[in-house]
Each structure stands twice: as structure tokens, then as C-alpha cells.
Amino acid sequence: MIPSSKQKLYYAVITLASLVGFVASFLQMLEKLTLMKNVDAVLVCNLNSVFSCTNILNAPQSSVFGFPNSLLCIIFFGFTLTAGLIGWTGGVITAKMRLVFQAMAVFFLGFGLWYFWESIFNVGSLCIYCLFCYLGVLFINGAFHRLNYPDYTHNPAIQKLLEQIKTKGIDIFILSLIGLVIILEAIIKFL
Fold first, then answer.
1. CA-based Rg of the chain, rounded to a whole angstrom?
2. Quick one: pLDDT at residue 188?
3. What is the pTM of this model?
4. Number of helices (H) and strands (E), helices first, in the chain?
5. Most buried among 69, 113, 124, 189, using CB within 10 Å?
6. Residue 85 is inside which H or E element, if any?
7. Superfamily name with CATH number, domain 5-190
8. What is the SS3 assignment for 51?
9. Packing angle between helix 95-117 and helix 69-88, nearest 10 degrees?
10. What are phi and psi of 91, to 5 degrees?
């Protein structure tokens, strides 16, 4: 089934959010490579003591799986950028594949929350590129949820509830609340 104009709008959001996240991840990867070549390098993204990529990139949390997290983000945003472009240009992505993309996005939503907690309270700094990546993750989650909620279940009562959540904007409110929690955490820690 060819995507409707509303679905194309969600795919456009996925495409643009993925592009922002991809560029931010790529720039962060370049900064990590610079630091690996010269530990005393002054990075472009070091704005002050709070926004310090050097502190973040030197922390063990920035390489949780043994390689830089930014590499994982480049791969994720590359996948979602591809999916967004396919849907935005009228291509068809099966419901199961959209659910796989959403599962990846939900993983990154949780991973990002953990990462920001670690960055704020254990490392004591923030990475400006990470903020743009996570903004992309929030938008991608919202758009995939709106595309996928009809495929979550065939139970009419649950489907009606999901429709009301979408209609009232509760899903967008929850994602906005997640972003607000991160902002409040940073304000509490750094002010």
C-alpha cells in the first residue's frame, strides 16, 4: 500500500530527524578521531566546562560496547534515514519492518536517557552533538509511533485507546516530557 500524505509527512520527519542525528554523530566521530590522534587536542565542540566534548569522549560511557557510541549512532541514523527516504518518496515499508525500526528507535530512546544521566551526574559534562542526536531520536520515535500504532494489536479496545492517545497528542506530550526531564536534570546539576 502506497503511503498516504499523512504517512509521507511522518516519513519526512523521520528523514529530517535522521539527517540531523547522522550529521551530529558523524561530527562527533570526527572529534573522537581527533582526540585519539592527539589527547591534548582542542575540540570545536568544547564550548565551556559544561559543554565539553573532551570530557564526554574520554569517559568510558562514550564507548559502552567497546567502540565509540557515535559509530553506533551513525549506523542507526543511516538506517532510519534510508527508511524515511523510502517512505517519503512513496515507497512501501512493510509493517513488520517499520516495527523493527521502531524497536531500534525505542532502544536508542532508553540508551540516550541512560547516557544523559551518566553524562550529567557522573561525567559532569554535556556533549552538544549528543543533544542533537537525542533530539533526532525523540522525533524518530514520535513519527514511527504514529506510523505503527495501528499495527500494534488487533484488540479493538486497545486500538481505540491508541487512537485516542494519538488524537489527543499524548504520545507527543510523553516524548516532550522526556526531553524536558533531560533539560531539568542538566539545570539541576549545572546551576
1. 18
2. 87
3. 0.92
4. 7, 0
5. 69
6. helix 69-88
7. VKOR domain (1.20.1440.130)
8. strand
9. 150
10. -75, 165
